[in-house]
């Protein structure tokens, strides 16, 4: 199976052929994959080099001329390093564009903490008007990318090497999808965390919701899943900073007594390279770690 990043390259290359409004701005990362697109569309495929602030500024400048820019590099260099440009050049100027990251929270542990961005979604959450997509499979990434490229708004698409075994229908209104139903609690699995959540909750009588769009947050879908219970127990499992969406869930359930457990990447920096699976286990995001914490929270 191809990766989400592979699918991003193939899909964007095709979209550049089809849509003269589309432009691609790179900062060296993934440039090799866009060789044909760069040759075919030299005026709309721009590599600025390792200059991430310029990456964002150039993309926003293109948007001011009426183009639809797609900006791409690792999440730590797309969101964290040029955050001021994201805030001002897109948000303050009121223009749209598509930010597509790679690397996730720890896709390449050997790259060290400079190439990890567990706080990217929380940081984007401080800005107004951004949609945030976290696909869990290359098929979902393609659908969300096509919708983002065809639109006019500000969109962040977070890609990862971690992937579920199969893709699920996504897009459209961006609401949560019910994968399992149960009465003992609600577990929201974000993007590539779904397979681990399903394994962890096997035999537990809980509702499992699947989210590939986390902003806007589907508060209505969460309230519907909570149902008419006197109280609601909710666990949110995210592949980035733990607790990123607990505030949004609290707001959605304000009229209902509830408890929320936010699971994700801990704030503690892991200072050994290891592999991605070892980072998942260290943060308790593997099936065993999730099982212990979810069942403990739900009291069973």
UniProtKB/TrEMBL annotation:
Q: SMART domains per the record?
A: Transket_pyr
Q: What's the name of the protein?
A: Transketolase
Cite the Pfam families for this sequence.
Transket_pyr
Against InterPro entries, the record matches this protein to: PDH/Transketolase (IPR051157), THDP-binding (IPR029061), Transketo_C/PFOR_II (IPR009014), Transketolase-like_Pyr-bd (IPR005475)
Species name: Streptomyces poriferorum
The Transketolase-like pyrimidine-binding domain is annotated at: 2-167
């Amino acid at each position: 199976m191809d990766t989400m990043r592979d699918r991003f390259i193939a899909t964007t290359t095709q979209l550049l052929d089809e849509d003269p409004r589309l432009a691609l701005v790179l900062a060296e990362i993934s440039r090799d994959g866009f060789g044909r697109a760069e040759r075919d569309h030299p005026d709309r495929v721009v590599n600025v080099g390792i200059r991430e602030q310029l990456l964002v500024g150039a993309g926003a400048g293109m948007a001011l001329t009426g183009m639809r820019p797609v900006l791409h590099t690792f999440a730590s260099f797309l969101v964290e390093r040029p955050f001021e440009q994201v805030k001002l050049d897109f948000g303050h100027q009121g223009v749209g564009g598509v930010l597509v990251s790679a690397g996730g929270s720890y896709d390449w542990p050997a790259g060290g903490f400079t190439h990890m961005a567990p706080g990217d979604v929380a940081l984007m959450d401080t800005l107004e008007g951004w949609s945030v997509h976290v696909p869990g499979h290359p098929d979902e990434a393609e659908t969300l990318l096509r919708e983002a490229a065809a639109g006019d708004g500000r969109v962040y698409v977070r890609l990862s090497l971690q992937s579920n075994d199969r893709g699920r229908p996504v897009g459209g209104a961006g609401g949560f999808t019910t994968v399992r139903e149960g009465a003992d609690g609600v577990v929201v699995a974000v993007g590539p965390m779904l397979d681990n959540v399903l394994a962890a909750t096997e035999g537990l009588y809980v509702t499992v919701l699947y989210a590939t769009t986390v902003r806007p947050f589907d508060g209505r879908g969460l309230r519907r899943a909570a149902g008419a219970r006197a109280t609601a127990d909710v666990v949110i499992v995210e592949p980035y900073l733990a607790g990123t969406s607990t505030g949004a869930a609290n707001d959605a359930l304000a009229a209902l007594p509830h408890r929320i457990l936010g699971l994700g990447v801990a704030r503690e920096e892991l200072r050994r390279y290891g592999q991605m699976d070892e980072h998942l286990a260290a943060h308790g995001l593997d099936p065993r770690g999730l099982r212990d914490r979810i069942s403990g929270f739900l009291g069973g």
